[in-house]
Structure formats: structure tokens, C-alpha cells
Design brief:
9-stranded mixed sheet, 8 helices, 26% strand
């Protein structure tokens, strides 16, 4: 039965052990190949977590994030890398995760004159679709080439985070140490979905995404780069 109640999100430095166990359990409902020790080690390297709780306080979704720094073309830039992310299917379609994450990161963006970029990797079209839904400019995209500066920032963060696992020529990240991937049926690309130009582009750029290969993406986190409707959706008040 589909839930109609809303979730409430909070940003925490680190989850409790009980919440961590629930996060892992939730993740393995939708992904294959995750090992508990690897999940814990990855979580320990993150700088924060957005937790979504139902009315009874149970975690029904989350996303982890890590802050990055780099210098590109003599310019200091900051990045926020999104790690493991999932929301229970009963709550798909709700905007609380995007709202809490966006409001928090827009606040972070205002803390410094250095630009803040969202660096993410996508093994499913649903994650990639966040970019055109919320942002005016993002890369790579189907209708415009990636500007040189943005490409250098993307490559810098990707190489900093993933090293040799990042294929600069194709813009893909391939993990050799694990087989973490979405389970069949979670985000399958059908012929009907390929009518959407964003999904078609994602599928063309990352044709082996069902094997867990990830497409590296980048967008600037700023009020000016959000669509006006997206700012209304997330309840952002300047």
C-alpha cells in the first residue's frame, strides 16, 4: 500500500548505530552487491547525512555527502559529492530529500566566495533526472557541450575522488572492487522512457549502467542556477 504521509528530513553529522543499520537494510532492498563493512567504511568518510524519517521516527530514506576542495585554473572551488542515496518506494515522488539537501547546500554555498559545485555519479536515470529538473545549467547534457572550465572541475573532482577508476575520455566511473548496482526493476530504461531526451542521453552516455557503471556529473549550487519552480518546490526562502 502506498503511503500518503510525509517524511521529515534532517541533516546530521553521523547517524546512530540503529539508524546506520536501517540505512544499510534500506539500501540493500534496492541495490545488489553491497557489503556491510564497505558500507560502514564509506559512511565513515562522509561529512554528513540527510535522514528522512516517517511519523514513527523510522528512517525511510537518506543521502550521504562529502565536501571536497580543489584549485582549477588558479581558482579555488568547493564540491559536495553525493554518496549512497535511496528512498523507500512507498515514498517515491515526495520532495523532502531534495528540499532538505538543497536548502542545506545553498546555505553552505553562501558561507564562502568560492563557488560550490554538486559532483555526483549516476548509475540510474532517476538520479540523472534530478539535474534538468532542478538546475538550469548542468553537465554533461544532451543539448549543449560542457564548457572547458566545468569539464576541468568535473575531471578534477572525479580524479580526486576515484583516481584510476575514472575514465576521463568517457566520463564514467567503473568500480573494480565491488558489484554494487541497482536491482532489476528499480530504474530500468524502457523504449517508452527513451522518448525523454534526458533519459535517452543518459542511456547513450552510460549504456552499461545496469552493471553499476556511473556517469560523472556536475552542476553549480547557487540560487541563480536553480529553476524558479524548483526553489518553490523545495521551500527555499532567501
Amino acid at each position: 500500500m502506498i503511503q500518503t504521509k510525509s517524511l521529515e528530513g534532517t541533516v546530521v553529522k553521523a547517524p546512530t548505530m540503529r539508524d546506520e543499520e536501517r540505512m544499510y537494510s534500506l539500501l540493500t532492498q534496492y541495490f545488489e552487491g553491497y557489503e556491510r563493512n564497505n558500507f560502514a567504511a564509506d559512511l565513515a568518510n562522509k561529512d554528513g547525512v540527510v535522514l528522512l524519517r516517517d511519523d514513527e521516527g523510522e528512517v525511510q530514506g537518506f543521502t550521504t555527502f562529502q565536501m571536497l576542495k580543489a584549485t582549477v585554473q588558479g581558482q579555488a572551488v568547493r564540491g559536495v559529492f553525493s554518496g549512497d542515496t535511496i528512498v523507500d518506494k512507498a515514498y517515491w515522488g515526495q520532495s523532502e530529500l531534495a528540499g532538505v539537501w538543497s536548502r542545506h547546500m545553498l546555505g553552505v554555498a553562501q558561507e564562502s566566495n568560492d563557488s560550490l559545485y554538486w559532483f555526483l555519479i549516476c548509475s540510474g536515470y532517476k538520479t540523472y533526472r534530478f539535474l534538468p529538473t532542478f538546475f538550469k545549467e548542468y553537465y554533461p547534457r544532451h543539448d549543449a557541450p560542457t564548457p572547458e572550465l566545468d569539464q576541468q572541475i568535473l575531471d578534477t573532482f572525479a580524479q580526486q575522488k576515484f583516481g584510476a577508476a575514472y575514465d576521463k575520455e568517457r566520463g564514467l566511473v567503473t568500480f573494480t572492487h565491488s558489484s554494487e548496482r541497482l536491482k532489476p526493476g528499480v530504474a530500468d530504461v524502457t523504449e517508452q522512457k527513451l522518448v525523454n531526451p534526458h533519459i535517452r542521453f543518459f542511456n547513450e552516455r552510460n549504456p552499461e549502467h545496469l552493471s553499476g557503471i556511473e556517469l560523472a556529473c556536475l552542476t553549480r549550487v547557487s540560487k541563480e542556477n536553480y529553476h524558479a519552480r524548483a526553489l518553490r518546490m523545495i521551500g527555499y526562502i532567501d
